[in-house]
Amino acid sequence: MTTVTACTNPNLALIKYWGKKSGYCDIPATPSLSIALGGLTTTTTIHEAVEDTIELDGRMVTDVKIENWLQKVRAEYSIPPIAIRSENDFPTASGLASSASGFSALTLCIDGLFSLRLDQQKLCWLARQGSVSAARSMYGGFVSLDPRTMETDCVQLQNFDHWDLRVVVAVCDTHTKVTSSTEGMARTVETSPFYSSWLSKTDQDYEDCKLAVAQKNFARLSEIAELNCFRMHALMLSSQPPLLYWNQNSLAAIGAIRDLQTDGVPVFLTSDAGPQIKAICMPESLAQVRTVLDGTVGVKRTIVAEIGRGPVVYSD
Ligand code: 2P0
Questions:
Q1: Does the Cβ of 132 fall within 6 Å of ligand 1?
Q2: What is the mean pLDDT of the chain?
Q3: Ligand 1 center from residue 129 Cα (angstroms)
Q4: How buried is residue 105: exposed, middle or buried, by Cβ count under 10 Å (0-12/13-18/19+)?
């Protein structure tokens, strides 16, 4: 085997991770629950080389996050220099967590090429050393990452075909974000007077969301996921200096989704550490939701995803 390729999906959290456990860089403070974004793929290929090289979306780059991650991996396993080539079939500046799909794909490539044969929890642990949310991209479907368990378990709660939901991403800005998630959440933990409330509320949001997903209760899921998203953005805003990830186009997209809800369309929104707004709906409302967001002044484009099936790995 000379090369290994892994294809993974980015993921979208319905219950958010914002803040690490005190003293750790790889353990979230609260449980999160995400969906794999099918139709959006990161494809990563690696092979042995004379020195480490990284090619991202066709360009040779220096990537400190990947280099630091490789150092951590080599502290555990004997890994020779590798050439990495990684491509996203979705825009990197679209706010679609390419670090999650990127680190999960890279983890699977290393496991495959060097026959590490790691079990699923160890793979998730390794991916988390790059980006905590990368552990969730190790699975398709509905996924939970729970730090309250012994191993900080990352598990698939439901397979991709459990519930046919669609996601419409309203791209509201195409520039790279100013404050990274890592930096932003560290600032929140240090400075927000509301961080302890966030910690005490998220466990319940997570349990409620898990139940709504199991029961396929769209109305309940809408309520909990929006609440959790707005709580996270309120928390970000309460940091010092404040973290405002939205722009006027994000507010226009939120307004458009609110209008759809007022008209009785089953749709809800969520948003991460960036300006993009994501609308989640049932397949029968997809065309209407997309048309409205495409027609909203300020929305640059829309991207549609379904529930993803999870990673695929192959070798040559
Ligand atoms: C999430 N985010 O649960 C939340 C919502 C952003 C907002 O996971 O520091 O890129 O590398 O662990 O994994 C972004 O966090 O940050 C994230 P690090 P990561 O999806």
A1: yes
A2: 95
A3: 12
A4: buried
Nearest-CA residue for ligand 1 atom 14 is 181
Angle between helices 64-76 and 98-113 (to 10 degrees): 40
What angle (nearest 5°) sits at the alpha carbon of residue 207, between those of residues 201 and 211? Answer: 145
Residues of the chain with pLDDT below 50 are none
Q: How far is the CA of 163 from the centre of ligand 1 (A)?
A: 24
Cα of 209 vs centre of ligand 1, distance in Å, is 18
The sign of the dihedral angle between the CA atoms of 71, 63, 94, 234 is: positive
Each residue of 13-49: pLDDT tens digit? 999 999 999 999 999 999 999 999 999 999 999 999 9
Give the tokens for residue 166. Answer: 């669609």
Strands 153-158 and 11-15: unpaired
Please give the distance, rounded to the nearest whole angstrom, from the Cα atom of residue 18 to the centre of ligand 1.
Answer: 7
CA–CA dist 87, 46 (Å, integer) = 12
Q: Does the reported pTM lie above 0.90?
A: yes
Q: How many Å is the Cα radius of gyration of the chain? A: 19
